[in-house]
Automatic annotation (TrEMBL):
Record's subcellular location: Endomembrane system
Signal peptide coordinates: none
Record key words, sorted: GTP-binding, Lipoprotein, Methylation, Nucleotide-binding, Prenylation, Protein transport, Transport
Protein's UniProt keywords contain Transferase: no
Source organism, top-level taxon: Eukaryota
Lineage: Eukaryota, Viridiplantae, Streptophyta, Embryophyta, Tracheophyta
Pfam families named among the record's database cross-references: Ras
InterPro entries on file: P-loop_NTPase, Small_GTP-bd, Small_GTPase
GO MF term set: GTP binding; GTPase activity
GO biological process, one term: protein transport
Residue ranges of the TM segments: none
Family: Belongs to the small GTPase superfamily. Rab family.
Protein name as it appears in the record: Uncharacterized protein
GO CC annotations on file: endomembrane system; vacuolar membrane
Length: 184
């Protein structure tokens, strides 16, 4: 029997407030960037279609709120996810982090990049984006450190991105789509 040619894949984007989650999605889907910060409230999704080999893939990308007072997504939200994108800002040494009881993403204060503790880590694949690499000398986390961290967590794929300049954004989300498709 032929495999289905279409797939609807659910991707969730997590990370601390202000790291650029919404900006990455806007750059990927609409090719737009705004300097202005407008905090996401709750969770909402955008869709993007792309072709992978002979398959038409629809990514349903869920943007979430990094701000603590808006974090109450519930486990049902994670359960259906095919891939989970963790975003951090390479220019920040310490950040408050993200925690909603199901998954926490935070910088650990030393030189590890972040810790991510999903309640059920086997349920979906993870990928890490180090965003805002256009910041130049303000960079606090080296690419080497980030890659070491990913290697120590079972080889989590890692991409350095700039939502502002559109750098590596397509490549990073293509990897997300492929991972999500594999895990389907
Ligand atoms: P919450 O919705 O609060 O969780 O934040 P967020 O992670 O969605 O961050 P958002 O995309 O709103 O971006 C926060 C700020 O960082 C905005 O002022 C953006 O313009 C800026 N920003 C996002 N991505 C980049 C980037 O790649 N480079 C630079 N220089 N600024 C960025
Ligand atoms: Mg946002």
């Amino acid at each position: 029997m032929n495999k289905p040619r279409r797939a609807l894949l659910k991707v969730i984007v997590l990370g601390d407030s202000g790291v650029g989650k919404t900006s990455l999605m806007n750059q990927y889907v609409y090719k737009k960037f705004s300097q202005q910060y407008k905090a996401t409230i709750g969770a909402d999704f955008v869709t993007k279609e792309l072709q992978i080999d002979d398959k038409l893939v629809t990514l349903q990308i869920w943007d979430t709120a990094g701000q603590e007072r808006f974090q109450s997504l519930g486990s049902a939200f994670y359960r259906g996810a095919d891939c989970c994108v963790l975003v951090y800002d390479v220019n920040f040494k310490v950040s408050k982090g993200y925690d909603d009881g199901n998954c926490s993403v935070r910088r650990d204060g030393n030189d590890n990049v972040i810790t991510a503790d999903p309640v059920d880590p086997d349920a979906f694949p993870f990928i890490l984006f180090g965003n805002k690499i256009d910041g130049g000398s303000s960079r606090m986390v080296s690419e080497k450190k980030a890659r070491e961290w990913c290697a120590s967590r079972g080889d989590i794929p890692y991409f350095e991105t700039s939502a502002k300049e559109g750098y590596n954004v397509n490549e990073a989300f293509l990897c997300v789509a492929k991972m999500a498709l594999e895990g389907e």
